[in-house]
Amino acid sequence: TGSVTLWGKGTEKREFIEIRDAARTILGLERANARGIVNLTCNSSYSYEQIAMEIQSYVDCKIVSKERTKTKVNHTYNNSKLRSLINDVNFRSPLEVVREIAGNEN
């Protein structure tokens, strides 16, 4: 049995972008001749705990918590500038990506 280790309870939120979604978006920005600083962000945040629990639903693993050594910080971003430059932006949630990977492994 493997394990997934979380700092604290894993409730800290982050934005996760799958590499293929990032590549499609960067290509779209290039095709749109976008210039300047554009944050590549999906506009949705997920906790590490949510992702660990999704992984656990497919594989036999424990979720282990380690004592947090820093202050909990959530990160969320606005992608309105990105969407104004290319309107077909589509990011899959990390939960969808875990399901896809787990489905391909069986």
Task: Provide an overview of this structure.
This protein is α+β, with helices and mostly antiparallel strands. Helix content is 38%, strand content 15%. It is built from four helices and four strands. The strands form two sheets. A two-stranded parallel ribbon has the order 1-4. Strands 2-3 form a two-stranded antiparallel sheet. Helix 2 (48-56) packs parallel to helix 4. The model has no long low-confidence stretch (mean pLDDT 92).
Round the mean pLDDT to the nearest integer and report it.
92
Order of helices and strands: EEHEHEHH
- Stretches where pLDDT is under 50 for at least 5 consecutive residues are none
User: Could you give a short account of the major beta sheet?
Assistant: 2 strands, parallel
Radius of gyration: 16 Å
Backbone shape? flat
End-to-end Cα distance = 18 Å
The proportion of strand residues reads 15-25%
Label the structural class.
alpha+beta
Q: Percent of residues in helical segments? A: 25-40%
Q: Notable features of this structure?
A:
flat, 4 strands, two-stranded antiparallel ribbon, two-stranded parallel sheet, alpha+beta, 106 residues
How is the topology of this model organized?
Elements: E1 2-7, E2 13-14, H1 19-31, E3 46-47, H2 48-56, E4 61-66, H3 80-85, H4 94-105
Parallel strand pairs: 1-4
Antiparallel strand pairs: 2-3
Helix pairs in contact: 2-4
